[in-house]
């Protein structure tokens, strides 16, 4: 009889362990999401490259983004990153560049005042998110992928875009002899709900 009692206790403990393990595992399979709103007031979207062998840097001074990232309280949301930026707001601090960027050959802000990014997938990898999506500039969409690193208070990413693929500066510099073909982009986003 004592062996049966010990077996029942062991069986009961094993059942409790399995129930807790199952609850813990299932609850962690479905992420909930935090929604972060970001804009140029507390965060930055900057770009850099070279012109005639000299480095230039700039940033968009008017943009907004929404990031739905794990974890949070809304399990019905899909992970996503969307952004919209005012192409006219690209500023380098150099009056020649700043007056040239809005022109038809470059950003053509008269016909394409907004640029957008829409994610197609956001995958959690450790303390980061692998983001893949579509960047649209001058009405031309191209795929972009980047790693969005989460350091607790900030999200950051660095990647490059091919300006020729977006028809940027192709009339005046189609072979990228004067201006970098690859333009480096940096994102620094303050996390706030």
TrEMBL record:
SMART domains: YceI (SM00867). Residues 35-190 form the Lipid/polyisoprenoid-binding YceI-like domain. Pfam families: YceI. PANTHER family: PROTEIN YCEI (PTHR34406). This is YceI family protein.
């Amino acid at each position: 009889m004592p062996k049966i009692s010990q077996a029942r206790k062991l069986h009961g403990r094993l059942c409790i362990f399995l129930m807790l393990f199952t609850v813990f595992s299932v609850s962690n399979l479905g992420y909930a999401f935090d929604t972060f709103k970001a804009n140029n007031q507390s965060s930055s979207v900057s770009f850099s490259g070279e012109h005639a062998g000299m480095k230039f840097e700039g940033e968009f001074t008017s943009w907004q983004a929404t990031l739905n990232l794990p974890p949070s309280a809304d399990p019905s949301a899909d992970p996503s990153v969307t952004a919209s930026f005012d192409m006219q707001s690209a500023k380098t601090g150099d009056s020649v560049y700043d007056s040239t960027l809005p022109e038809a050959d470059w950003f053509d802000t008269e016909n394409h005042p907004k640029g957008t990014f829409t994610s197609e997938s956001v995958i959690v990898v450790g303390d980061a998110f692998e983001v893949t999506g579509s960047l649209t500039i001058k009405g031309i969409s191209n795929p972009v992928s980047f790693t969005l690193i989460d350091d607790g208070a900030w999200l950051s990413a660095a990647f490059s875009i091919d300006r020729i693929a977006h028809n940027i500066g192709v009339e005046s510099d189609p072979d990228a002899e004067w201006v970098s073909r690859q333009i480096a982009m940096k994102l620094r986003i303050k996390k706030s709900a």
